[in-house]
Design goal:
Elements lengths: L3 E5 L3 H13 L4 E6 L2 E5 L6 E5 L15 E4 L3 H13 L3 E8 L5 E7 L5 E7 L1
Parallel strand pairs: 1-4, 5-8
Antiparallel strand pairs: 2-3, 3-4, 6-7, 7-8
């Protein structure tokens, strides 16, 4: 159902470096280059993540309650993605681990602009 999600940035160069390195951990690469940013994904037919400067020219701000969740296929990849985000200057919003009793395993972090993300797997 989700085709792509975009996050705003006020420093496109820093955000691009962050996401190039972060998303490489899960095999994603740049799929699109736009005038105001980039989009990453694993396939042109799979959901993508874009980082852009806002269309209206005003500063990017973080949405309260907004989070992007990135599905990966193992707990090891959740751990690696979370660790890489922190290594690249992101901030911890919840260490990787199980949440509840449904098999959900996730780690939460914020990017350099303060956007909240989660890497998760099930089972």
């Amino acid at each position: 159902m989700i085709g792509y999600v975009t996050l705003g940035t006020n420093d496109l160069a820093a955000a691009t470096t962050f996401y190039d390195q972060l998303l490489a951990v899960i095999g994603a690469k740049r799929l699109m280059e736009l005038k105001r940013g980039y989009a990453w994904g694993t396939s042109p037919t799979a959901p993508a993540l874009g980082v852009l400067t806002p269309f209206d020219g005003r500063p990017a701000t973080v949405g309260n309650g907004v989070m992007v969740a990135l599905y990966v296929d193992s707990r090891a990849k959740v751990d690696a993605l979370h660790a890489k985000a922190l290594e690249l200057g992101g901030t911890d919003e919840g260490a990787p681990g199980p949440r509840g009793d449904s098999g959900f395993y996730g780690g939460y972090f914020r990017d350099l602009d303060g956007n909240k993300l989660n890497a998760f797997t099930m089972g």
